[in-house]
Write a structure and sequence with these properties.
The complex is a heterodimer of chains A (about 220) and B (about 220). The relative contact order of chain A is 0.12. Helix content of chain A is about 50%, strand content about 20%. Chain A has helices at about 5-65, 70-75, 85-95, 110-115, 140-150, 190-200; strands spanning about 100-105, 125-135, 155-165, 170-185. Chain A is rod-shaped, with a radius of gyration of 34 Å. Chain A starts with a helix and ends in a 24-residue tail after the last helix. Chain A has two domains: about 1-75; about 80-185, Alpha-Beta Plaits, CATH 3.30.70.60. With about 220 residues, chain A is of the alpha+beta class. Chain A is built from six helices and four strands. Chain B is α+β, with helices and mostly antiparallel strands and about 220 residues long. Chain B folds into two domains: about 1-60; about 95-210, Alpha-Beta Plaits (2-Layer Sandwich), CATH 3.30.70. Chain B is about 55% helix and about 20% strand. Chain B has seven helices and four strands. Chain B has helices spanning about 1-20, 25-65, 70-90, 95-105, 120-130, 150-160, 205-210, and strands at about 110-120, 140-145, 170-180, 195-205. In chain B, strands 1-2-4-3 form a four-stranded antiparallel sheet. Classes of the chains: A alpha+beta (about 220), B alpha+beta (about 220). Strand 3 (about 155-165) of chain A pairs antiparallel with strand 1 of chain B, so a sheet runs across the interface.
Chain lengths: ~220, ~220
C-alpha cells in the first residue's frame, strides 16, 4: 500500500461518509423535518379545533336547550316563509286593538322573486314584505304599532300612511296603511354542517358558512 | 559491542517508524460509526415523528367519527338565526317615539290630517339598484290645516328647532309643498285665513337614534 493512500484514506473515508450523509441521511431528515414542522402542527391544530368545537357546541347546545330558547328563536325568525301564520298574527293584534282590517297582502320582494337569490347581499336571511290597511282611532293605531314591536316574530314597519276619513256613521276615523317586512331563514341541516366541516382541511381556511344558499322564493299574496 | 548496540538501536527505530505509517483504523472506524449513527438516528427519528403524527391523525379521525351533526346543526342554526335577528333589529325604527315627538312639536293652532313616512333608501335602491345604506333617512309628508300663515311659520320653526334651545330639532330640510287658502265670506278672523298645507321633511336621525338600543349609531350626513 502506498504511503499516499495511507495518508489519504482517512480524508477519503470522511468525504465518502459526508457524501453518504448528504445523499441518504439528509433527505430522511428533511422529510422528517417537514412532518415535524408542517404536518404534525396542522393535525395538532385540527385536533385542538375539533375539541374546541365539541366543547363549544356542547355548551351552546345546553344553553339553547334550556327554557325552550330554540322555540323562541324559531318564532322570531322562522325557517319557512309562513305567511299565513304571519297574517293570523296581524289579524289577532288588529282584533285585540278593536281596529278594522280593510286589506292585507304579503309577498316576497321582487328582486328575490326574479333572481332567486337573497334580497340583500351579505345577509343570510330572506324577507317577506307586505302591507295592511286598518281603520280606527289614533290611540288604537299607536297601540298596534307598539304591539307589532312586541310580536314574537320580528316584524319591522318600513312605511306608514295615515289619513283622516269619515266613517259610515259620520264620525272621523283614521285610515292607516302600514308597510312591513318580516324575516325568515332556511334551516341549517346536518348535511350542510357535514359538508361545511368536511370542506375544512386546513386550519387557516376561512370560517365556514353553514347557512344554505338561498333557493327561489314563492309568491304568496292574500 | 558499541557497534552492535548501535544496530539494535537502529532496528528498533525502524520498527517504530513502520507502526506510525499504518492505516488509521480508529479514525476510519470513528467516521463510519458516526455516519451509520446519523443514518440510523435519522431513521429512528423519522419513525418516531411519524408515529406521533399518525397517533394524532387517529385521534382526529376518532373525534370526527364521534361528531354529533344534529347537535352541531342545531347550534349553527340558532347562532345563525340570532345573528340574523340582530341584523334585522338594526333596521327597526321606534315609530311611537316619532309620534310622541310629533305630538310634542305640534302647536295647538295646527291640525294634521295626513301623515306619510317612508325610508328614502327605498327610492334610492329602486333607482340605483344599490343596497340600503346603514343609516337610512326617513322622509315625512304631512298635510294639515291652520289659521293664517303666521301659525304655519310658527309650526315650521318648532319643527326645525329653537336655535337657542339645545334640544334636537324633530325635522331637517322642511319644505312647504303646497298652500291652499280657503275662501271665507265674512268669517275671516284676526289670525288670518284658514289654509291647508302640505309639508315635506326629513326626520332628524338623532331623534330615531334614541329609540332602540340595538340600532346602530345614526349620524347626520
Amino acid at each position: 500500500m502506498s504511503d499516499y493512500l495511507k495518508i489519504s484514506i482517512l480524508p477519503l473515508t470522511a468525504i465518502v461518509c459526508l457524501a453518504v450523509i448528504w445523499l441518504f441521511v439528509k433527505p430522511i431528515y428533511d422529510s422528517t423535518k417537514k412532518i415535524r414542522d408542517v404536518t404534525k402542527p396542522q393535525v395538532d391544530s385540527l385536533v385542538q379545533r375539533e375539541n374546541e368545537m365539541r366543547q363549544r357546541s356542547d355548551k351552546l347546545y345546553s344553553g339553547i336547550s334550556e327554557g325552550d330558547q330554540t322555540d323562541t328563536i324559531l318564532n322570531a325568525f322562522p325557517d319557512t316563509e309562513n305567511s299565513k301564520e304571519l297574517i293570523s298574527q296581524f289579524e289577532f293584534l288588529i282584533n285585540q286593538e278593536q281596529m278594522v282590517l280593510s286589506a292585507i297582502s304579503v309577498e316576497p320582494p321582487p328582486s328575490a322573486e326574479k333572481s332567486g337569490i337573497a334580497p340583500q347581499s351579505g345577509k343570510t336571511y330572506r324577507e317577506v314584505s307586505g302591507n295592511f290597511e286598518v281603520r280606527g282611532s289614533y290611540s288604537q293605531f299607536k297601540q298596534l304599532i307598539a304591539d307589532l314591536n312586541q310580536l314574537n316574530r320580528i316584524v319591522n314597519v318600513n312605511k306608514i300612511q295615515i289619513a283622516n276619513t269619515t266613517g259610515e256613521e259620520g264620525g272621523t276615523t283614521g285610515k292607516y296603511i302600514i308597510d312591513f317586512t318580516a324575516y325568515w331563514q332556511p334551516p341549517v341541516t346536518t348535511e350542510d354542517v357535514r359538508s361545511g366541516l368536511e370542506s375544512i382541511r386546513n386550519p387557516k381556511d376561512q370560517p365556514m358558512n353553514l347557512v344554505p344558499a338561498p333557493e327561489s322564493n314563492t309568491n304568496i299574496s292574500t | 559491542m558499541d557497534i552492535r548496540k548501535g544496530v539494535v538501536i537502529s532496528r528498533t527505530n525502524l520498527i517504530d517508524s513502520k507502526k506510525e505509517a499504518g492505516l488509521p483504523w480508529k479514525g476510519i472506524g470513528l467516521v463510519i460509526f458516526v455516519t451509520l449513527f446519523l443514518w440510523a438516528g435519522a431513521f429512528f427519528y423519522k419513525d418516531y415523528v411519524q408515529k406521533q403524527t399518525s397517533a394524532l391523525q387517529n385521534q382526529l379521525e376518532s373525534l370526527k367519527s364521534g361528531r354529533d351533526y344534529n347537535k352541531i346543526a342545531a347550534v349553527a342554526d340558532s347562532q345563525s338565526r340570532l345573528d340574523a335577528i340582530d341584523q334585522a333589529l338594526e333596521d327597526r325604527v321606534d315609530w311611537n317615539l316619532l309620534f310622541k315627538k310629533l305630538e310634542e312639536n305640534t302647536i295647538p293652532e295646527v291640525t294634521f290630517n295626513n301623515f306619510d313616512v317612508k325610508n328614502s333608501d327605498e327610492i334610492n335602491s329602486a333607482i340605483f339598484a344599490s343596497s340600503a345604506s346603514q343609516n337610512p333617512e326617513y322622509e315625512v309628508s304631512l298635510k294639515g290645516t291652520t289659521q293664517g300663515l303666521n301659525n304655519l311659520a310658527k309650526q315650521i320653526a318648532v319643527f326645525e328647532g329653537n336655535k337657542n334651545d339645545k334640544t334636537e330639532p324633530l325635522f331637517t330640510k322642511v319644505t312647504i309643498q303646497k298652500i291652499d287658502i280657503k275662501k271665507t265670506d265674512s268669517n275671516q278672523t284676526e289670525s288670518g285665513h284658514a289654509l291647508d298645507f302640505n309639508l315635506e321633511a326629513t326626520i332628524n336621525p338623532a331623534i330615531l337614534d334614541t329609540g332602540f338600543e340595538n340600532k346602530p349609531k345614526v349620524t347626520n350626513q
